[in-house]
Design brief:
Order of helices and strands: HHHHEHEHHEEHEHEEHEHHHHHEEHHHH
Structural class: alpha/beta
Largest sheet: 8 strands, mixed
CATH architecture of the largest domain: 3-Layer(aba) Sandwich
Oligomer: single chain
């Protein structure tokens, strides 16, 4: 019987994790199969296996991730200001899902957009979220009642926190801010969910620019735990503390970031996704690119990730970061957006999407090669590590541990590796810099090691 059960258990575990990434469940199955029925050897085998696993790098790094999570939770000072009413402007995928999550976590929420037809899909998604997360009928009814559509934006008058989540356009956001600040009550906080625009540019029309903060959520909101809490050099500490308290109150992990292009997560993901496009242009099949990233430990590959966040969003971030860091925007990305191929949201991007899942065959990518470059893993991963060093050097975050925490919880960077900077240290910073130099010589200056490596 045990061999049959073993086969079933292994099938279930393999669907969740690879043995070389997370060996513990495989060891448990092996021990149970071989010695689980023995009263003489079973306990000894278990103790020996446990000790071996506890001393592994996976164990050490997962313990590290636990403490990194606590470090994120410790940010911010205690505040007496309580956020009860949240007003969200923009009922697209991000704004609508932020509103739903806030209502789920107990806030009164009003959701504003130009017309009711733009709000209705968000309310439908919210109903599905509530049905999944709230089993009790009465509690689900109460949760649903906390979220109200508000085309006229009346909710902004009483809101303690207003979150702007409209499309990424500086002029449109500023016009909205001028309208909102005329309605908002004294002491209320205005926050933006911008994914890439610097707060210094956005806040020039505000009467109290020091109380303007960024609250950058990630898609899907219900699944990804990180929220980047963005500040300028002169941001009011009280406003920042309210942002921290609100974020933790809705069961998210805050990461304090200095306002800069792309902040942390998008900035670090950009070269990862860009390199995938370089590989695709060389003829490497898209599914193979994704497979290489997953083999390293990423939750999904860069191609699927681009499709998931939306190719229009990826294009905008690429343009913002390209302008500030002198990087080219991938031509294929622009062409696909021009054709309306936006990824999961449109049903087709680099992949065709059905029922929310990517069919790992590109509709028209021209990539038919089955040959994988020997350096594919380093080409995908080391640009992220190099950019993490750049973020630390630019003081976008306070220290290396917070940066590692943000990248793990914001991008899903292989937790068992402890974060990009920790991974570099375990691998050896000298060895990583040498490898980057080799890649730069072979593939171009985009791999040049950042000057910040000397201080790591």
């Amino acid at each position: 019987l045990r061999p049959a059960v073993r086969k079933m258990l292994l099938k279930q575990v393999r669907e969740k994790a690879r043995e070389d990434h997370y060996p513990a469940p495989y060891a448990m199955i092996a021990n149970w199969t071989a010695d689980g029925a023995s009263t003489t050897t079973g306990y000894e085998v278990e103790a020996s296996s446990f000790a071996e696993l506890m001393c592994s790098s996976t164990s050490r790094n997962l313990v590290r991730v636990f403490f990194l999570q606590n470090r994120l939770k410790s940010q911010g000072k205690r505040t007496d200001t309580e956020v009860k009413h949240v007003h969200v402007v923009g009922a697209g995928v991000m704004g609508g899902d932020i509103a739903a999550w806030c209502a789920l976590r107990g806030h009164t929420v009003t959701l504003q957009d130009r017309e009711q037809k733009y709000i209705d899909p968000a309310m439908e998604r919210a109903a599905k979220l509530f049905a999944k997360r709230v089993r009790d009928d009465e509690l689900r009814k109460t949760t649903t009642e906390r979220l109200r559509s508000d085309v006229d934006g009346i909710g902004a008058i009483d809101a303690d926190l207003v979150i702007e989540a409209i499309y990424e356009n500086l002029e449109a956001k500023q016009a909205l801010y001028e309208s909102l600040q005329a309605k908002m009550k004294p002491g209320a906080i205005l926050a933006t969910n911008t994914s890439s625009i610097r707060l210094e540019e956005l806040r020039t029309v505000l009467r109290e620019p020091q109380r303007f903060i960024g609250l950058h959520f990630f898609n899907p909101v219900a699944m990804l735990p990180l929220v980047e809490v963005i500040r300028c050099d002169d941001t009011d500490q009280d406003a920042l503390d309210i942002g921290f308290a609100f974020t933790k109150g809705i069961a998210k992990l805050p990461l304090e970031c200095r306002s800069s292009p792309g902040f942390v997560v998008n900035r670090i993901l950009a070269p990862y996704m860009s390199e995938a496009m370089h590989l695709a242009e060389e003829g490497v099949a898209l599914a193979e690119i994704d497979k290489a990233a997953v083999a390293f430990g990423m939750p999904m590959g860069p191609v699927e990730l681009a499709d998931s966040v939306g190719l229009d969003v990826a294009l905008h971030v690429s343009k913002v970061l390209g302008a500030s860091m002198n990087r080219p925007v991938p031509a294929t990305l622009q062409a696909m957006v021009d054709k309306g191929l936006l990824g999961r949201k449109s049903g087709q991007g680099y992949y065709v999407w059905e029922n929310g899942k990517a069919l790992k065959k590109s509709p028209d990518n021209g990539s038919k090669s089955t040959h994988l470059p020997a350096d594919i893993e380093d080409r995908l991963i080391l640009p992220m590590v190099n950019e993490a060093v750049a973020c630390l050097y630019d003081k976008v975050v306070a220290d290396a541990d917070l940066l590692d925490a943000g990248v793990i919880f914001g991008t899903g960077f292989a937790p068992f590796r402890g974060g990009p900077l920790h991974y570099a240290k375990e691998r050896g910073t000298t060895a990583v810099v040498m490898r980057l130099n080799e890649l730069a010589k072979a593939h171009g200056e985009r791999f040049e090691p950042h000057p910040g490596w000397s201080g790591l």
